[in-house]
Amino acid sequence: MDYAKIWFVLWAVLWTGYFALDGFDLGVGFSGWLAADDEAQRRDVFASIGPFWDGNEVWLVTAGGATFAAFPPVYAGLFSWLYPALFLLLFSLIARGVALEFRGKLAPPAWKAFWERTAAVSSFLAALLLGTAFGNIFRGLEIGPAGYQGTFFGLLNPYALLTGLLFCAFFFFHGQLWLASRVSGPVSVKASALASRSWYVLAALLAAFIAASYLRTGLAGNFAARKFLLALPLLLAISLGAAKLLLSRGKPGTAFLASFCAIALFSLTGFAGIYPDLLPSRQGPEFALNVYNSSSSAYTLRLMTAVAAVFMPVIIGYQFWVYRVFRAPLAAGELQKTGIY
Known about the structure:
By secondary structure, the protein is mainly alpha-helical. The protein has helices at residues 3-31, 39-49, 53-56, 58-70, 72-81, 83-102, 109-139, 158-182, 186-216, 220-225, 231-248, 252-274, 298-325; strands at 143-144, 147-148, 277-279, 289-290.
């Protein structure tokens, strides 16, 4: 078995799981206040993601651990070449977690307002940085014979920023669909309207991303060589269209599942485009970090595969259990007397 290729697939799946799962609570974090008109509604907005957000971040931790163990040079490259950007991302995720936990600890409105703003800013920054980081990966990094030759501000190129905005649009839409399906009453109505309007922005940014990817990156190469991969962007378009159609028919829960599939398919499309590279190079394919020159030993990957075969079903089963336990939507103002969130 080619364990390096298997771990590329698992690496892509872990990041995909993170984007599709943590995407909705990042979206709620920076846009949920738009669907709430008073304190009781804002409490319900934050409560809707309370049981889920920290479990969703397990996928990020696992993706990082898998990168370290399966592709050590890639992990080392990311944390040396992109250290300032990753530090900002880590700081944003920490601030987001603290804000979600601290908001309900004290009653004064000023306290709650401070942590709500902190959650909004940090969630938006995390989404933007994630998109910008993967935009640079899709575009290719400045890796040459002397190693990485890029700069922090070089990462803020138009293509990467477009990808960052696309991530934000995906997460905004995803988050509003979550609120529309998970909180009843005025919040659900307003979130549905916001999701419906934001869909057009998302579709426009996705079209711009596809055009820019074709013109400015090598993502299209694998799709031209392996026509079956074209099923991924086709299913992405179908899923995104289905989300809009289902929302217009008053089915936000099913629309959320379609949005989940759209984010997953978008992520998998990107990873399929860069394969076999994990960190493509703009200065030539011979300088890229890929599954052939960056993977751990066959023994290590074989051992990791056995561990993943045991623990991945546990992680997935736990998440299904949590979502099942908390599957009932919140009634409007349901948490008003509890004093939490």
